[in-house]
Design a protein that fits this description.
The chain is of the alpha/beta class and 428 residues long. It has 18 helices and 19 strands. 39% of the residues lie in helices and 21% in strands. Helix 1 crosses helix 11, helix 4 packs parallel to helix 5 and helix 14 packs parallel to helix 15. The chain is elongated.
Length: 428
């Protein structure tokens, strides 16, 4: 089987899905998939409309069937699906029913091995039962935690007598690797559907799959533990807050100048109003790239100023966040040192040394622990718990990519309310 590119339309909104499909078809994709979110949102009408518009293309219905195989495969096939997706985690009885129903209605079955305890053995069993294709699918929630989309692909491709599909985290730089590993079907979702220009994104991926090229891209790649900072510097604090279910913002803090961008691990400081000893001592403890985060109780008296800024910059720190006062902001602005504070105030008190360094602190009721990630920009500052930093960085990139696509669709004449179907999705 020559490699084919399958577009996964994981939208909630049918008009947007159809628009992306039309552009991707112009870019050369071979198969079109009504993704599970689209089917759950719009029903099998999504498959019907794809079938009506793209008569010459293979239409896939990603039903993720777990039970009632005969009924679900019959419905999808009658709606126009050439291939119906069934979960490998389903029982053998469900796989048999699905395969028999597909034979009745002239469609084929792709068994999705997402979550399978032993993908190789389940792939072999699915093929034995008569499945036409098996799929290695790295779940989106696992991708966000850094899962490798190629971890099991090569083993399944080597063992499976059925053609293998690869899905999850594929883009123009790594799509060719899926083919090299043995995949016959390269399933791409966000790298086309969320691209500003789905047509050109599809062309790049089709080129990669057909020629083995690796086409560079800045988007749709997921961070690993070594690239968290790089990823966080690409996204906004708003993207990060959205990625954390609208949490993480540090209240009442503002940048002392526009254009600051900062990302680093927190060195926390608790001090008393106007006592600048511990914030300055923290500079010596911090490592290059760290951010000093000071809980000064929100009091306006300054605990940070020009000389501390010079010292922090010389040490290579990423920035400072002060729930209290800072001063000498003209010099801070000249140095372009990322600084976020509740107050700008000229008066500081004596360096008495009260407080502590690297203990959990509270900034406006939000807990910041040593080692948490702090990101700041023109909108303010957010905290990311260290244990979820990789996942949050990747989810924030996904938010940014989605917004890039929506921005382009707005420029093409839609309104935000229309494109997102706000009225339809208001909570009832």
């Amino acid at each position: 089987m020559k490699p084919v590119v399958q577009l996964a339309l994981d939208f909630m909104n049918l008009p947007r899905a159809l628009s992306a499909a039309e552009a991707a078809v112009e870019g050369g994709v071979d198969w079109i998939e009504a993704g599970t979110p689209l089917i759950k949102s719009e029903g099998l009408e999504a498959v019907r409309q794809l079938r009506a518009r793209f008569r010459r293309h293979t239409i896939v219905a990603d039903m993720k069937t777990m039970d009632a195989g005969r009924v679900e495969v019959e419905m999808a096939s009658k709606a126009g699906a050439d291939i119906v997706g069934v979960l490998g985690a389903a029982s053998d009885a469900t796989l048999r029913e699905s395969i028999e129903a597909a034979a009745n209605y002239g469609s084929k079955i792709m068994v999705d091995l997402i979550g399978a305890a032993d993908p190789v053995q389940r792939a072999l069993r699915a093929a034995e039962l008569g499945a036409d294709y098996v799929g290695i699918h790295t779940a989106i929630d696992e991708q966000m935690r850094g899962a490798d989309p190629f971890e099991t692909l090569a083993r399944v491709c080597e063992a499976s007598p059925a053609p293998v599909a690869a899905a999850g985290g594929l883009h123009s730089e790594n799509a060719a690797l899926a083919v090299e590993a043995g995949a016959s079907i390269v399933i791409v979702g966000g790298a086309i559907a969320k691209a500003e220009d789905p047509r050109e994104a599809a062309r790049a991926i089709v080129q990669a799959v057909k020629t083995g090229a690796r086409v560079p891209t800045d988007l749709f790649k997921r961070a690993d533990a070594d690239s968290i900072r790089e990823t966080l510097l690409k996204v906004s604090t708003s993207n990060i807050s959205d990625a954390q279910h609208r949490t993480g913002g540090l209240p009442r803090l503002r940048p002392v100048a526009e254009g600051f961008k900062m990302a680093g691990r927190a060195v926390t400081v608790r001090t008393y109003p106007g006592d600048w000893a511990k914030p300055v001592e923290a500079i010596d403890i911090a490592e290059p790239g760290d951010v000093i985060v000071v809980d000064a109780g929100g009091h306006p008296s300054a605990v940070w100023g020009e000389l501390a800024t010079h010292s922090a910059e010389a040490k290579g720190l990423a920035g400072v966040v002060v729930d209290g006062g800072v001063r000498d902001v003209a010099e801070i602005r000249r140095l372009r040192f990322p600084t976020f504070a509740r107050h700008i105030f000229p008066t500081a008190w004596e360096p008495k040394g009260m407080g502590e360094i690297n203990a959990p602190i509270q900034i406006g009721g939000v807990t910041v622990r040593p080692g948490d990630w702090i990101v700041g920009d023109d909108d303010g500052a957010v905290v990311i718990p260290s244990k979820s930093a990789l996942e949050t960085a990747n989810r924030a990139m996904s938010v940014m990519e989605l917004e890039n696509r929506l921005r382009r669709e707005i420029d093409e004449g839609g309104t935000l309310s229309e494109l997102t179907e706000l009225i339809k999705w208001e909570k009832r």
